Amino acid sequence: MSLCLESNSTSRFLGLDISTSCTGICILNQDKELVVLDNIRLDKCADFFQKCVEVKKHLEDLKKDHLIQYIFIEQDLQAFRPGLSSAATINTLARFNGAITFIVYQTFNVRPDLINVTKARSAIGLKIDHKDKTRSTKQKVFDWVRPQIEFDWPLKKTGDYKASCFDMSDAYVICRAGIELLQQGKLNEDEV
Length: 192
What we know:
alpha/beta; Nucleotidyltransferase, domain 5; 5 helices; 5 strands
């Protein structure tokens, strides 16, 4: 389910939230207006390599319709945090993030910028109340993004939002933050 609003005559900004089960995709124009919001379901792929091939196919389709000038990717976890993910999970995610980051570069011939999720949220004024335990962080991000854009979010048969909405919301945050940081000259200030 993607939403395309304009022709491909102007440059676009691509934001990705890379995950081994579902990768969120967002394309915004220079005015931060939504062009594409989509996801790639990967949970039915047999292995790591099939997941990479599936993402590559989807990215090649996007390249046909959009002139991507900048690419922003949510940086993978840099440290182990007890209770959140096992070391094996963090390793798998880091491997997949690296593989997809390289595939993105190969596909678009654009060097992706990796953005720390905390820095991204701060750049767009998204504050997460970590004391509120009634909703997950992903739910809080989704609740913040929903009124920001006009989009028909995918629903389950029960009427609840599909889990892919969270990945698409994260991709939107990364894309919008990338544009903000780029405009402020702060995109790569943490790099050595």
